[in-house]
Amino acid sequence: MSVDLNWKVDMETTMKTPPIVTAEEWEAARERLLVKEKEMTRARDALAAERRRMPWLEVEKEYAFDGPRGRVSLLDLFEGRRQLIVYRAFFEPGVFGWPEHACRGCSMVADQVAHLAHLNARDTTLAFASRAPLADIERVKARMGWTMPWYSMTDGFDADFGVDEWHGTNAFIRDGDRVFRTYFINNRGDEVMGGTWSYLDMTALGRQEEWEDSPEGYPQTRPYEWWDWHDEYADAEPAEGWLAKVEASGVRAKENARPLPASSEGGDTVRSSEPAGSCCSR
């Protein structure tokens, strides 16, 4: 039996809430919505696959940044890794909150950034860049508890990459000393950034897992296999028993584990051969 519930938000507003239903009715409603959830997941995977096929734009101009190690180049921002993601955060004179704080929206993005060890394990570096002097950047990082690399721009990097007037996230890849721009996200696209998967999905190489639809020759490993605790990636071998756990989960190679069309059955990821369990099962 459905019951309407009017909830007083304040003295002048009454919020019209959804009906109160039985457990069976609630589960049926969830199953109906799950079909759309799966469609969105598949669409997101397909979009990421198209990003991996975007043409590359070579960066021929030299750029300089001030960082903890002094004046560095765009190539230096990679920190030796193959991919680089740069978020343009607004922290400079004229921005609301200066000099105590960076832009409120940019600060929310910074608060959402996951532990960088997971990105680094996929040969990817994340860096922030702003117009503020390095001393101010280091001060606000310490105040807010942020640990990501954050550099001070010294030239026209922001104007050249579409982030001189608004925040945005640029992705790059390098081939030796040659640097290429591979993708760009801004406006509401930045709302979902911060998590490891969102960052990897915007890169040229993606998550680098076998189930992904990537061009031939792209680096890929089995799902779960590369995952680790953020303080143990430096270990030469995975934790004892982890690879056995991956095997037990029933994860299969790409040709045997392509996602099927959206379904209301099972979990969010439907594969041609369902795994016996997840990496989190006992």
Sequence of secondary-structure elements:
EEHEEEHEHHEHEHEEHH
Distance between the ends: 38 Å
> Could you state the CATH homologous superfamily of the largest domain?
Glutaredoxin
| Total helical elements | 8
Structural class: alpha+beta
* Mean pLDDT score: 88
Radius of gyration: 22 Å
Strand arrangement across the biggest beta sheet: 3-10-9-6-7-8-4-5
Produce the secondary structure layout:
Blueprint: E1 6-8, E2 14-16, H1 23-51, E3 57-58, E4 64-67, E5 70-73, H2 74-77, E6 83-88, H3 104-112, H4 116-120, E7 124-130, H5 134-144, E8 150-153, H6 157-160, E9 168-175, E10 178-186, H7 196-201, H8 242-248
Parallel strand pairs: 6-7, 7-8
Antiparallel strand pairs: 1-2, 3-10, 4-5, 4-8, 6-9, 9-10
Offer a quick outline of the entry.
The protein is of the alpha+beta class and 282 residues long.
Structure description:
The structure is a single chain. The chain has helices at about 25-50, 75, 105-110, 115-120, 135-145, 155-160, 195-200, 240-250, and strands spanning about 5-10, 15, 55-60, 65, 70-75, 85-90, 125-130, 150-155, 170-175, 180-185. The chain has eight helices and ten strands. It has an eight-stranded mixed beta sheet with strand order 3-10-9-6-7-8-4-5. A two-stranded antiparallel ribbon has the order 1-2. The protein has about 280 residues and is of the alpha+beta class. It has two domains: about 20-50 and about 210-280, no CATH class; about 55-200, Glutaredoxin. The chain is about 25% helix and about 20% strand.
